[in-house]
TrEMBL record:
Cited NCBIfam families: PRK00129.1, upp
GO MF assignments: uracil phosphoribosyltransferase activity
UniProt family annotation: Belongs to the UPRTase family.
Activity regulation, short description: Allosterically activated by GTP.
Superkingdom field: Bacteria
Keywords (A to Z) from UniProt: Allosteric enzyme, Glycosyltransferase, GTP-binding, Magnesium, Nucleotide-binding, Transferase
Function statement: Catalyzes the conversion of uracil and 5-phospho-alpha-D-ribose 1-diphosphate (PRPP) to UMP and diphosphate.
Residue intervals of the Phosphoribosyltransferase domain: 12-213
Cofactor note text: Binds 1 Mg(2+) ion per subunit. The magnesium is bound as Mg-PRPP.
Protein name: Uracil phosphoribosyltransferase
Length: 214
């Protein structure tokens, strides 16, 4: 059903992911717990997102004998965090992939127009040669993610993936229309957007919950 909205959507139905996400959604979950859970869920997401990375065999010596052992081929990947809430996802992914490069893109949603406004951009120089995982916990209208992906394509990136905690059909449709080539990973697809473009049932404002700003 969700794949009808976005043909390259993967929903992470693993019980650990779903259980942790439920705790994150709860109103009474504290900032500290929310942040730790975001990190744990993101590590699990990174495991799924990297399942198909190309492998090559390299010669190594074990203490007992030489062997040809599997190793990830090519340049390592780059995580691009959509500030500021994306940082809550990037940190968990970096726990699993500590040598990944990291780019930052500052986008905020104009409260009146609900459209993203770019206020910061810093990418690794060789970003175009890397697999780029764009992270932001919330895919709501989809315009922030679509703008981020468009900006990265303009910078020459052609191997892109987008990862979020929660998506809604509206945002998935925007990504399917504007970036059908980009696989999307989400932990859940929620019911709808409300009149303020918040995800329902959702988890509230991801940035505020991660950083305790409200
Ligand atoms: O799909 P969209 O409708 O574009 O909305 C999603 C965006 O809104 C949130 O960011 P926000 O503007 O609250 O910024 P913040 O991360 O600084 O809190 C969220 O983290 C996304 O970036
Ligand atoms: O529900 C939503 C929508 C956008 N941004 C959030 O943090 N939460
Ligand atoms: Mg916010």
């Amino acid at each position: 059903m969700d794949q009808a909205i976005h043909p390259r959507l993967t929903v992470l139905i693993h019980p650990l992911v779903q259980h942790k996400l439920t705790i994150m959604r709860r109103r009474e979950t504290s900032t500290g717990e929310f942040r730790s859970l975001a990190r744990e869920v993101s590590l699990l997401m990174a495991y799924e997102l990297t399942r198909d990375l190309p492998i090559e065999r390299v010669p190594i010596d074990t203490p007992l004998e030489p062997m040809m052992a599997p190793s990830i081929a090519g340049k390592k990947l780059c995580i691009v965090s959509i500030l500021r809430a994306g940082d809550g996802i990037a940190s968990g992914m970096l726990d699993l992939m500590p040598s990944a490069r990291v780019g930052h893109m500052g986008l905020y949603r104009d409260p009146a127009t609900k459209r993203p406004v770019e206020y910061y951009l810093k990418l690794p120089e060789d970003v175009a040669e890397r697999l780029v995982i764009v992270v932001d916990p919330m895919l709501a209208t989809g315009h922030s993610a679509a703008a981020a992906l468009a900006r990265l394509k303009k910078a020459g990136c052609h191997n892109l993936r987008f990862a979020c905690l929660l998506a809604v059909p509206e945002g998935l449709s925007v990504l399917a229309a504007e970036h059908p080539d980009v696989p999307v990973y989400a932990c859940a697809v929620d019911r709808m957007l409300d009149d303020h473009a918040y995800i329902r049932p959702g988890l509230g404002d991801a940035g505020d919950r991660l950083f305790g700003t409200k």
